[in-house]
Specification:
The chain is built from five helices and 17 strands. The protein has about 350 residues and is an alpha+beta fold.
């Protein structure tokens, strides 16, 4: 009986092998690899496209949080692989010949462009590494001292927003029309995206936390720590009105009074996520060590989001860097670079 079972297993294996060996049956190949900048830092969400030069068939995937991608189910043929991503020169590699069942590796290194980058982005990609060691400093009042120059950071444990239908429609329309983001027009990027894109300097006093931004307008933000409430007659602004209170070693910042012009994301599948004047933002900021700053954003916007959306980032101390003068409206090349396709 065991011999009979063994014969059946062998026949099944041979059948599978013959099936894939029959000429004319469709066989698929794949291309995989990593996407990094020329410093070797992973480029998350970069769109990698493969185009079959014989048929014109195209397939696009986004690199994951580690910069890894895989283009699967590609029919045999000759392909051209490209990456066209903001702040980088377009990558193009042609004449990639794929046979059936072939898995080809292509690691992609992107070069910076002259436009689209902010000083913070470049410093972040150049300086990323192990945070400096040591205990977080404290103020004379015994509170954690957030003062210092901080490199921007990617999301930690990212989650997708639950958009209301109207907000999803706005986002879809912006993408379809090629609408320029506010940042491309030298307008503010908003509070949440500052820690993603820009080098920031925090200056902390007992009654005020000042955020200075290298690479984004208006270039500063104030968080009042003196116990004042929000004004009753707030006019909507890009950054709203922020007040903070301490919960142990965590600073809880409450911000209201936003306008509806900020884009909450401009990359990949979240391009053009809108906010409304109903936005209520709560930040929880703590400094667990000398070299790291944790920020958790909770976005509650009943006009755009079906439920609160959390965004978490870890910023890295850059003790040897300092902010520089930043001008966007002078010789702004972003609109031309980011025009309709």
């Amino acid at each position: 009986m065991y011999q009979s079972d063994a014969i059946v297993s062998v026949l099944r294996a041979l059948s599978v092998a013959l099936l894939f060996a029959v000429p004319g049956l469709p066989q698929s190949a794949s291309i995989h690899g990593s996407v990094t900048d020329h410093y070797g830092v992973a480029v998350r969400l970069a769109p990698v496209q493969a185009k079959n030069l014989q048929t014109g068939l195209t397939l696009t995937v986004s690199a994951n949080e580690r910069g890894q991608y895989k283009l699967s189910n590609l029919p045999p043929g000759t392909y051209e692989v490209s990456v066209d991503w903001i702040a980088y020169r377009k990558f193009l590699r042609g004449n990639i010949v794929l046979q059936g069942q072939q898995d080809s590796q292509l690691d992609i290194s992107l070069e910076d462009t002259e436009v689209g980058n902010t000083p913070g982005e470049l410093v972040f990609r150049h300086s990323v590494g192990e945070p400096v060691k040591g205990q977080a400093p404290r103020t004379a009042e015994g509170k954690p001292d957030f003062s210092g120059v901080w490199l921007p950071g990617p999301e930690v444990h990212p989650e997708l927003p639950d958009l209301l239908p109207a907000a999803a429609a706005i986002m879809k329309q912006r993408t379809a029309d090629g609408t320029l983001s506010p940042r491309a027009l030298c307008l503010p990027s908003g509070i949440v995206r500052t820690s993603e894109l820009d080098l920031v300097k925090l200056v902390q006093t007992p009654k005020l936390l000042v955020v200075l931004v290298d690479g984004g307008d208006p270039g500063f933000r104030q968080i009042f720590l003196d116990g004042r409430p929000h004004p009753a007659d707030l006019s909507p602004t890009w950054l709203g009105h922020s007040v903070g209170r301490w919960e142990g070693d965590t600073l809880v910042v409450d911000t209201v009074g936003f306008n509806d012009k900020v884009w909450l994301a401009i990359n990949g599948p979240l391009n053009g996520v809108p906010q409304t004047e109903q936005m209520h933002l709560v930040e929880r900021i703590d400094r667990p060590s000398l070299g790291q700053l944790h920020i958790e954003y909770t976005l509650n916007d009943p006009g755009s989001l079906a439920k609160p959306w959390k965004i978490r980032r870890t910023l890295t101390l850059s003790p040897n860097d300092e902010l520089q003068e930043y001008l966007c409206s002078e010789n702004n090349k972003d609109p031309q670079h980011m025009g309709k396709k």
